[in-house]
Every structure is written in C-alpha cells, then in structure tokens.
Input
Amino acid sequence: MAEVLNETEVKKMAAEVPDWQVEGKELKQVMKFKDFVTAMAFVNKLIEPAEAAGHHPDLEISYNKVTISLTSHDAGGLTEKDFAMAKQIDGLK
Ligand SMILES: C[C@H](O)[C@H](O)[C@H]1CNC2=NC(N)=NC(=O)C2=N1
Output
C-alpha cells in the first residue's frame, strides 16, 4: 500500500498539477464539457488508465460537468498514486 503523504509533500506535489485542488483528503477537479455525450466520452477514457493502475477516481456526473476526486481509500488519504493518476487524467484532455 502506498503511504499517505504529509502536508509538505502534498503541497509540493500539488504544485505539479495546478488544475487540481486539494480538499481535505482528496484531489479534485471539475471539468466542463460541451454536453453530456462529450462528458461521458471523457469519463470512458478514464477506464483504461484506472484499471491499469488499479487506482480509480470517484466520479460525479451532472450533465456536462464531471467532478473527479482522487484519494487512496486503502491508505486513508492522498498518496503518490493520486498525483500520478491526476497527471495521467490531465494527459487525456
Ligand atoms: C485491490 C485493489 O487494488 C484495491 O481495492 C484498489 C482499487 N482501486 C482503488 N482506487 C482508489 N482510488 N483507492 C483505493 O484504495 C483503491 N484500491
């Protein structure tokens, strides 16, 4: 299991993913799309990297708005896995 990062480590890693906000034990990004179909197409792109990493984002879909939350449930907080997944998700845009 990956280790939970301390506050200093979280700040340092968060600077590398400026589109994401640290909210408590989560890394969050709200993405807006043209419509529901485009939003869902993006959500579907998350399947492969999430399965490959064995690390899955929590998703909230509201029409054209997708809220992506990353946390390491098993570790109980943010780990390097969350930041790695955030970078991968940014690469899918
Ligand atoms: C066994 C399997 O690797 C675990 O249940 C994984 C699956 N995906 C996961 N995803 C996330 N975000 N956090 C986890 O702790 C987690 N655990």
